Amino acid sequence: MEPVWTALTGASLVPAWNALEETQYFSLATLRERQEAALRRITAAACKDTAFYRRRFAEAGLGSSVSTLAELRKLPVLTKRDIRMHGPELVSRNIAGKRILEFRTGGSTGVPLALFISEETSHQRNAAARRSNLWSGWKVGEPVGAVWGNPLLPKTVKDRLRHELLDPVIYLDTMSLSPDAVRAFAREWRRERPTLLFGHAHSLYLLAKTVEDLDIDDIRPRAILSTSMMLLAPERATIEDVFEVAVFDRYGCEEVGLIGSECELHHGMHINLDHVIVEFLRADGQPAAPGEMGFVVVTDLLNDVMPLIRYRVEDLASPMTTACACGRGLPLMDRVAGRVADFLVRDDGTQVAGVSLIENTLTRIPGIEQMQIVQEQLDRIVLRIVADPGGAAEARPALRNYFEATFPGARIDIELVSGIPREANGKYRFAICKVVQ
Ligand SMILES: [Zn+2]
Question: Using CA atoms, how far apart are residues 417 and 385, in angstroms rounded to an integer?
Fold first, then answer.
């Protein structure tokens, strides 16, 4: 199996993964030293090769690189708005000879961003994903079942990489979830026998509920991997009850890749210290204490094509100081609060994942800065959008067309708003369904 994977994903993946298998057991002190060396490299490159960071470091009274967290904290955090305003200035001028991948994301708070990474960085990220995939008991090459939007059967290396090295054999499409779709998924499951089930947290929950309603009792993965969205405790309990197996919670974002992942002990998520520096900041900018929720701010130690230094993801989480009994030196983090998206419902009863609707519109339709979808009634959907200057006129027709096609017969209202606030409990809801189901 390995040579095939190597050919498809690049020769650098396997050595990168092998190295990560070792570093996970390094002491925290050693891992921190390695982080500081990587921080020095990435900040030196950012200052040398991007106009944005040269200016930002100078304004903060810093030299042309930093190598400690204390120095790093002197830099202001990088917001999504910064990236939208200054995108081209964040891209390195020193990219000759590198294969560059461009991707667009809207996933984390409904703000679309265009991002660039090298193929090498992509391999490194996927090596980290593979390392934590293996913590679940899944083995390289075993079939995977996914609950995901837009089942792009991976056609290219790039598509494969987007799926974090998990190449699902069967899909349940989150754009069209219904009892019939779940029955078809169960039939495919019996044929292909996946050992791992992965998907958005709430999609896994809806699958579990439907499987229970339909008395399907033979979807039995070895483990379940929940990713991309906040995993709510009651939903986790339902998923684990129905499938009689543990859920591994995973936290990351497309902008920097994997941030944290549970090991087999489930006592928190091990931070991907090899690749990211993670800070937890209170609203006043000071570090959150262990157990206290703070904004997640990440510094990507890999991406030298478009460096993201002190990037605020807009999720909340808390640091932990306990060491995990599994023996890994990677420290733990806990309780991510952030992305939540309901499923909307069509008049035929089919459910449509809010997260998939966001992915299908925000990353493709220009002019929108942020969006929230509210289904007020079965036949009425309100799109609240924060538009770029002049962007509303551009975005409206495309948004209307997409939603009218997806929800035939429903009235689509588009409201321009100045901002979309997060809820008091820290959740950022980008799709809300008020229809009683
Ligand atoms: Zn552990």
Answer: 6
Distance from the CA of 265 to the center of ligand 1, in angstroms?
6
How far are the Cα atoms of 45, 92, 93, 99, 157 from residue 96, in angstroms, in the given order? 14, 10, 8, 9, 21
Q: What is the CA radius of gyration of the chain?
A: 21
137 CA to centre of ligand 1 in angstroms: 14
* Cα separation values, 362 from 183, 283, 304, 372, 410, Å: 31, 28, 26, 10, 20
CA separation for the pair 154, 421 (Å, rounded): 36
CA of 17 to the centre of ligand 1 (A): 18
Please give the distance, rounded to the nearest whole angstrom, from the Cα atom of residue 386 to the centre of ligand 1.
41
Query: Could you tell me the pLDDT band of residue 361, with boundaries at 50, 70 and 90?
Result: confident
Whole-model pTM?
0.85
Q: Which residues have a beta carbon within 5 Å of ligand 1, which is an ion?
A: 263, 265, 324, 326
- CA nearest to 352, candidates 247, 435, 237: 435
What end-to-end distance do the CA atoms of the chain give, in Å? 45
How high is the mean pLDDT of the chain? Answer: 88
d(C-alpha 159, C-alpha 9), whole Å:
11
Distance 228 CA to ligand 1 centre (A): 20
Centre of ligand 1 from the C-alpha of residue 331, in Å:
9
What average pLDDT does this structure show over 235-240?
94
**Dihedral, 103, 105, 111, 116 alpha carbons, nearest 10:** -30
